[in-house]
From TrEMBL:
Pfam families: Patatin (PF01734). The keyword Ribonucleoprotein does not apply. PROSITE patterns: PNPLA (PS51635). Residues 33-224 form the PNPLA domain. The active site is at residues 66, 211. Keywords: Hydrolase, Lipid degradation, Lipid metabolism. The keyword Phosphoprotein does not apply. The lineage of its organism: Bacteria, Pseudomonadati, Pseudomonadota, Betaproteobacteria, Neisseriales. A motif (DGA/G) lies at residues 211-213. This is PNPLA domain-containing protein. It comes from the Bacteria.
Length: 468
C-alpha cells in the first residue's frame, strides 16, 4: 500500500475487481477527479482543471479514460496546465491525425508521388493474400506527441506519480476493462485512447488493447473509496443519435459504440453519492473530431466549472496549503539520451539502415533530437511503428529502438486516378497503379513505379439550337 502525504493522507487501495474493503480499513480522505472519454470534447477537461486550480482545490488522485487519461495523466505527471494548453494550441492536429509524418521528413520520391493523385489507402500483399491495415490512421506521430509531453517517464507504480493516477483501456479479446497502474506512462495513455478502427490498437503483454471508453468511460470505481472520499466527475461523452440522425452505415456503427459507452457511463455514475459532483460542459456544437476547436472547448470546460464554483469551493484549502500542494507537483524534466541501440529483427527491411540513421556520437543529446531521427526513418514508409524505450543503465539513459515493420507487407499497392479536360469537351482519364516491395538486402525504401492502365477520350461537341 502506498501512502501519499499531501494535504492529508491519501491511499489508493489496490483492491481487485469489485471486492469490498474490510470494515477495519482506514478511511481515505481528499478529492479525486474522474475524467471521461470523448475525443476532442475532452479538451474541456483542461478547462475544468484550470478552474479547480483557480479555486485552490487540491487533487488527491486522478483516473481517466481516453482523452481524460491523456489530460489527467499529463497533469498527474506534473506537467503545468499552462504548458499543456500551449502544447495543444500549437499542435498541428490536421497533420497529426492524418497518420502521416511531417512533410519535411518525407523523401523526395514520396513527395513526387503526391502529385500523381494516389489515394491515401495502401493495400498489402502477403502470402498471396491482399491485406488492409488494422486502422485508418497510423499513430506514429501521436505516439511521439504523447511521449514528448509525458517526458518518457515510467513508474513501478502510478502511486509514485506527483498525483496518483489510473488509466483505463479495453481488452479487445474479451471486452474487459484494463487498469494501468504502472509502467511507461505513454503506453497507458495511448492504450486508453486507441479508438478501434481509427487509431492503431496497442499490443501489451499479449493483449490487444483499444479505447477504454468501450469498457469504462467514466472510471468512478477506480477513485471512489479507494484514493478519495469525494469525487469530481467530468463527463464529456456525446449524446446518443436520434432516429432521424441514423442515415448511413457509419451512423449505425457510431450508434452501436455510443450505446455501449452510455450504458457503462450510467453504471459508473450510479456509484456516486450526494457528496460528489458531476461537471458536464455544454459541448453540443462539437464532436469527438473537433480537434481544431480545442481553444473553444477548453474555454467551455472552464465555464462549466466556473458555474459550479460555489459547490467546488467546498473542497478548497487555504492559499498557503494549496501552495504547498502545488510545490509537490514536481515538473518532469526533458531526459537526455546517452546511447541508442536497435533491438529485434525484420524480415523485409534493412535494419542496418536504422542503426546507421540513429547512430549516436557519444555525447548526450535531448531525446527530442533522437525522436526527430525516428521521424525521418518512419517517413521512408516501411514501418507500422518505430517504438522505443528509455532505460537507465549504469547511470546512463539508453534509448532502445524497436522497429515494427508493416504487417501487410512486403508488397504494397497504391491506386490513383488522373482526370484532364479541355475546353472543347475532351476528357482524359488515367488510371494509376504503383507497386513497392521491400527486402532485407534493399534500401529501406525502394522506388515505386506507376503504370498507365487505360486512357479514355470522350468528346461531345457543344451546340446551341434556339427554338423559335
Amino acid at each position: 500500500m502506498v501512502i501519499w502525504l499531501c494535504c492529508g493522507v491519501r491511499r489508493w487501495r489496490p483492491c481487485p475487481g469489485l471486492a469490498a474493503e474490510p470494515e477495519s480499513a482506514p478511511k481515505v480522505k481528499g478529492v479525486g477527479v474522474v475524467l471521461g472519454g470523448g475525443g476532442a470534447r475532452g479538451f474541456a477537461h483542461l478547462g475544468v482543471l484550470k478552474e479547480l486550480d483557480r479555486l485552490h482545490v487540491p487533487i488527491s488522485c486522478i483516473a481517466g479514460t481516453s482523452a481524460g487519461a491523456l489530460i489527467g495523466g499529463m497533469y498527474a505527471n506534473g506537467l503545468p496546465l499552462a504548458d499543456m494548453e500551449q502544447a495543444f494550441n500549437s499542435a498541428d492536429w490536421d497533420q497529426m491525425l492524418s497518420g502521416k509524418t511531417t512533410r519535411s521528413s518525407v523523401p523526395y520520391d514520396r513527395k513526387r508521388d503526391d502529385y500523381k493523385n494516389y489515394m491515401d489507402v495502401t493495400l498489402g500483399i502477403k502470402n498471396g493474400q491482399i491485406r488492409v491495415p488494422r486502422s485508418a490512421i497510423n499513430s506514429q506521430e501521436i505516439d511521439l506527441f504523447i511521449r514528448k509531453l509525458t517526458r518518457d517517464r515510467s513508474f513501478d507504480s502510478f502511486d509514485q506519480m506527483p498525483i496518483p493516477f489510473r488509466a483505463i483501456a479495453t481488452n479487445l479479446s474479451n471486452g474487459d476493462a484494463v487498469v494501468f497502474d504502472k509502467g511507461p506512462l505513454a503506453l497507458a495513455l495511448r492504450s486508453s485512447m486507441a479508438v478501434p478502427g481509427v487509431f492503431d490498437l496497442v499490443e501489451d503483454q499479449g493483449r490487444l488493447l483499444v479505447d477504454g471508453g468501450l469498457a469504462r468511460n467514466l472510471p468512478v470505481q477506480e477513485v471512489k473509496g479507494r484514493c478519495a472520499d469525494h469525487v469530481i466527475v467530468v463527463d464529456v461523452s456525446g449524446p446518443l443519435l436520434k432516429p432521424d440522425e441514423i442515415n448511413s452505415l457509419f451512423d449505425v456503427v457510431a450508434q452501436t459504440s455510443n450505446i455501449m459507452v452510455d450504458r457503462n457511463v450510467r453504471e459508473q455514475l450510479a456509484r456516486l453519492d450526494k457528496r460528489d459532483l458531476v461537471v458536464r460542459p455544454q459541448l453540443d456544437a462539437y464532436t469527438s473530431a473537433s480537434f481544431a476547436d480545442n481553444k473553444a472547448i477548453i474555454a467551455l470546460g472552464e465555464a462549466a466549472a466556473h458555474r459550479m464554483a460555489k459547490q467546488l469551493s467546498a473542497y478548497a484549502v487555504s492559499p498557503e496549503e494549496y501552495a504547498r500542494w502545488k510545490q509537490s507537483l514536481v515538473r518532469p524534466a526533458i531526459p537526455m539520451v546517452d546511447d541508442v541501440h536497435v533491438q529485434g529483427t525484420t524480415a523485409f527491411v534493412n535494419i542496418q539502415s536504422i542503426e546507421k540513421a540513429v547512430e549516436h556520437k557519444g555525447l548526450a543529446e535531448p531525446i527530442d533530437v533522437a525522436r526527430d531521427k525516428l521521424r525521418d526513418i518512419f517517413a521512408q514508409g516501411d514501418y507500422d511503428q518505430l517504438d522505443y524505450s528509455l532505460d537507465s543503465q549504469s547511470g546512463r539513459n539508453v534509448m532502445t529502438v524497436m522497429p515494427v515493420e508493416k504487417s501487410i507487407g512486403p508488397n504494397y499497392l497504391r491506386f490513383g486516378l488522373n482526370l484532364k479536360g479541355s475546353a472543347p469537351g475532351d476528357a482524359s482519364f488515367t488510371f494509376l497503379a504503383a507497386h513497392q516491395r521491400t527486402g532485407p538486402t534493399a534500401p529501406v525504401r525502394r522506388g515505386a513505379m506507376s503504370y498507365r492502365w487505360a486512357t479514355a477520350n470522350y468528346s461531345r461537341p457543344s451546340s446551341i439550337n434556339p427554338v423559335i
